Amino acid sequence: QVHLVESGGGLVQAGESLRLSCAASGSAFRISAMAWYRQAPGKQRELVAKISSGTSTNYGDSVKGRFAISRDNAKNTVYLQMNSLKPEDTAAYYCNADITYYTGPVYRTENTWGQGTQVTVSS
Protein backbone atom coordinates (compact mmCIF):
# COMPACT_ATOMS: atom_id res chain seq x y z
CA GLN A 1 0.00 0.00 0.00
CA VAL A 2 1.40 3.36 -1.06
CA HIS A 3 0.79 6.41 1.09
CA LEU A 4 1.00 10.02 -0.01
CA VAL A 5 2.18 12.57 2.54
CA GLU A 6 1.87 16.29 1.85
CA SER A 7 3.84 19.05 3.54
CA GLY A 8 4.60 22.73 3.13
CA GLY A 9 1.25 24.34 3.80
CA GLY A 10 0.84 27.26 6.14
CA LEU A 11 -0.31 30.83 6.66
CA VAL A 12 1.16 33.50 4.40
CA GLN A 13 0.36 37.01 3.28
CA ALA A 14 -0.89 37.88 -0.18
CA GLY A 15 1.93 38.08 -2.70
CA GLU A 16 4.15 35.59 -0.89
CA SER A 17 5.13 32.09 -2.00
CA LEU A 18 4.89 28.53 -0.75
CA ARG A 19 6.16 25.21 -2.02
CA LEU A 20 4.12 22.10 -1.33
CA SER A 21 5.63 18.63 -1.40
CA CYS A 22 4.00 15.24 -1.73
CA ALA A 23 6.08 12.12 -1.16
CA ALA A 24 4.95 8.59 -1.95
CA SER A 25 6.18 5.77 0.28
CA GLY A 26 6.02 2.06 -0.39
CA SER A 27 7.63 -0.53 -2.61
CA ALA A 28 7.14 -2.35 -5.92
CA PHE A 29 5.17 0.44 -7.52
CA ARG A 30 5.30 3.01 -10.27
CA ILE A 31 3.62 6.38 -10.35
CA SER A 32 2.08 7.58 -13.56
CA ALA A 33 0.15 10.86 -13.35
CA MET A 34 0.36 13.02 -10.24
CA ALA A 35 -1.78 16.04 -9.47
CA TRP A 36 -2.71 18.68 -6.95
CA TYR A 37 -6.32 19.51 -6.15
CA ARG A 38 -7.76 22.03 -3.73
CA GLN A 39 -11.03 22.49 -1.93
CA ALA A 40 -12.27 25.52 -0.04
CA PRO A 41 -15.14 25.30 2.47
CA GLY A 42 -18.47 25.16 0.67
CA LYS A 43 -16.79 24.73 -2.71
CA GLN A 44 -16.23 21.76 -4.99
CA ARG A 45 -12.80 20.23 -5.25
CA GLU A 46 -10.95 21.57 -8.28
CA LEU A 47 -7.85 20.62 -10.22
CA VAL A 48 -4.89 22.89 -9.58
CA ALA A 49 -2.18 21.19 -11.63
CA LYS A 50 -1.23 17.78 -12.94
CA ILE A 51 1.89 16.22 -14.36
CA SER A 52 2.20 13.02 -16.37
CA SER A 53 4.89 10.37 -16.16
CA GLY A 54 6.45 12.08 -19.17
CA THR A 55 6.43 15.47 -17.37
CA SER A 56 3.64 16.92 -19.52
CA THR A 57 1.77 19.47 -17.37
CA ASN A 58 -1.66 21.02 -17.19
CA TYR A 59 -2.94 23.84 -14.96
CA GLY A 60 -6.23 25.21 -13.85
CA ASP A 61 -7.03 28.56 -15.41
CA SER A 62 -6.98 30.39 -12.07
CA VAL A 63 -3.35 29.46 -11.34
CA LYS A 64 -1.72 29.61 -14.77
CA GLY A 65 1.39 31.76 -14.71
CA ARG A 66 1.63 31.65 -10.91
CA PHE A 67 1.96 27.98 -9.97
CA ALA A 68 4.37 25.34 -11.25
CA ILE A 69 4.19 21.58 -10.76
CA SER A 70 7.26 19.37 -10.97
CA ARG A 71 8.35 15.89 -9.93
CA ASP A 72 11.44 14.03 -8.81
CA ASN A 73 10.97 10.40 -9.77
CA ALA A 74 14.05 9.28 -7.84
CA LYS A 75 12.39 10.57 -4.67
CA ASN A 76 8.82 9.64 -5.67
CA THR A 77 7.89 13.21 -4.93
CA VAL A 78 5.79 15.87 -6.62
CA TYR A 79 6.06 19.58 -5.86
CA LEU A 80 3.80 22.57 -6.29
CA GLN A 81 5.54 25.94 -6.34
CA MET A 82 2.97 28.63 -5.59
CA ASN A 83 3.94 32.23 -6.28
CA SER A 84 2.01 35.50 -6.01
CA LEU A 85 -0.51 33.90 -3.69
CA LYS A 86 -3.94 35.48 -3.39
CA PRO A 87 -6.59 35.18 -0.67
CA GLU A 88 -8.73 33.22 -3.12
CA ASP A 89 -6.03 30.52 -3.14
CA THR A 90 -6.97 29.67 0.44
CA ALA A 91 -7.99 26.01 0.54
CA ALA A 92 -7.01 22.53 1.60
CA TYR A 93 -4.61 21.17 -1.00
CA TYR A 94 -4.62 17.45 -1.79
CA CYS A 95 -2.06 15.34 -3.60
CA ASN A 96 -3.38 12.70 -5.99
CA ALA A 97 -1.57 9.97 -7.88
CA ASP A 98 -2.22 6.93 -10.03
CA ILE A 99 -0.21 4.08 -8.51
CA THR A 100 0.57 0.91 -10.46
CA TYR A 101 1.65 -2.15 -8.49
CA TYR A 102 3.73 -4.74 -10.34
CA THR A 103 4.47 -7.52 -7.81
CA GLY A 104 1.40 -9.61 -8.54
CA PRO A 105 0.57 -11.84 -11.52
CA VAL A 106 -1.03 -8.84 -13.19
CA TYR A 107 -0.52 -5.13 -12.78
CA ARG A 108 -3.09 -3.22 -10.83
CA THR A 109 -3.61 0.52 -10.66
CA GLU A 110 -5.11 2.50 -7.81
CA ASN A 111 -5.93 6.17 -7.52
CA THR A 112 -4.62 7.47 -4.19
CA TRP A 113 -5.18 10.67 -2.22
CA GLY A 114 -3.06 12.32 0.43
CA GLN A 115 -4.53 13.65 3.66
CA GLY A 116 -4.32 17.29 2.59
CA THR A 117 -2.41 20.34 3.74
CA GLN A 118 -3.98 23.70 4.54
CA VAL A 119 -2.92 26.86 2.73
CA THR A 120 -4.27 30.14 4.09
CA VAL A 121 -3.50 33.46 2.41
CA SER A 122 -4.29 36.65 4.29
CA SER A 123 -4.95 39.97 2.59
Any overview of this molecule?
- The protein is an all-beta fold and 123 residues long.
- The protein is 0% helix and 59% strand.
- The chain has strands at residues 3-7, 10-13, 18-25, 29-39, 46-51, 57-59, 67-72, 77-82, 91-101, 108-113, 117-122.
- Strands 2, 4, 5, 6, 9, 10 and 11 form a seven-stranded mixed sheet that branches. A four-stranded antiparallel sheet has the order 1-3-8-7, with no helix packed on it.
- It is elongated.
- The termini are far apart.
- The mean pLDDT is 95.
Short overview:
This protein is an all-beta fold. Helices cover 0% and strands 59% of the residues. It is elongated and about 55 Å long.
Structural key phrases:
single chain; 123 residues; mainly beta; 7-stranded mixed β-sheet; 4-stranded antiparallel β-sheet; 11 strands; elongated
Question: How are the SSEs placed, and which strands pair?
Answer:
Layout (H helix, E strand, L loop, with lengths): L2 E5 L2 E4 L4 E8 L3 E11 L6 E6 L5 E3 L7 E6 L4 E6 L8 E11 L6 E6 L3 E6 L1
Parallel strand pairs: 2-11
Antiparallel strand pairs: 1-3, 3-8, 4-5, 4-9, 5-6, 7-8, 9-10, 9-11
